[in-house]
UniProtKB/TrEMBL annotation:
Domain NodB homology residue range list: 1-171
The protein's name: Polysaccharide deacetylase family protein
MF-aspect GO terms: hydrolase activity, acting on carbon-nitrogen (but not peptide) bonds
PROSITE patterns from the UniProt entry: NODB
Top-level taxonomy: Bacteria, Bacillati, Actinomycetota, Thermoleophilia, Solirubrobacterales
Pfam families with a match to the protein in the record: Polysacc_deac_1
Length: 193
């Protein structure tokens, strides 16, 4: 179980992150999600069953979003942070579909994408170098790491040490947030199925 270790490392350094949680996992790990929220992390919705990708089928997309949100309950941020489930880390067609977009806009969700995926789940050593390179590439990086087995946990402290004087912040670069306040505020055409 990687999450307690990740939470310990973040707490030791006073860092706050957002955990996008798969609803199905909440059934088993609600206490852990509650601890994350209590530690000051934001808890977001990452679909009910993590379809790969979410937008693959129109039918079911609304339930994937709303069932997970119902399970999150008071763990959720008021702005209802939501991240679509992908097929392999890329921002690509199929991540969203019209039903999902309608549900997000109509339901007042905040859709949070990303701009850096160092692929910790594929390479639990090499992701550190990649993440450091990706942080260098832009002014404001939204870095996706995974608190699952054999992903970021083992080298998280090394990464934070080597990141040096990088400033970590909890909010999101605006160009990673295409839907908020019941409006489409960024381009999503390339993400539709
Ligand atoms: Zn995911």
């Amino acid at each position: 179980m990687a999450t307690p270790r990740v939470l310990d490392v973040l707490a030791e350094r006073g860092l706050k992150a957002t955990f996008f949680v798969v609803g199905r996992q909440l059934e088993h790990y609600r206490t852990l999600a509650a601890r994350a929220a209590q530690d000051g992390h934001w808890i977001g919705n990452h679909t009910m069953t993590h379809p790969r990708p979410l937008g693959l089928r129109e039918a079911g997309a609304a339930d994937e979003i709303e069932d997970a949100q119902a399970l999150l309950g008071e763990l959720s941020r008021p702005e209802k942070l939501f991240r679509p489930s992908g097929a392999g880390g890329d921002l690509e067609p199929g991540l969203l579909n019209h039903t999902a977009v309608g549900t997000l806009i109509g339901g007042g969700y905040t859709c949070v994408l990303w701009n850096a995926v160092p692929r910790d789940w594929e390479d639990q050593d090499g992701w550190v170098d990649r993440a450091l390179e990706q942080i260098e590439e832009r002014d404001w990086t939204l870095l996706v790491l995974h608190d699952v087995q054999d992903a970021s946990a083992a080298r998280l402290e090394e990464f934070l040490d080597r990141a040096g004087d990088v400033t970590f912040r909890q909010d999101f670069p605006p160009d990673c947030v295409p839907i908020r306040d019941r409006k489409l505020v960024g381009p999503i055409r390339g993400l539709l199925a």
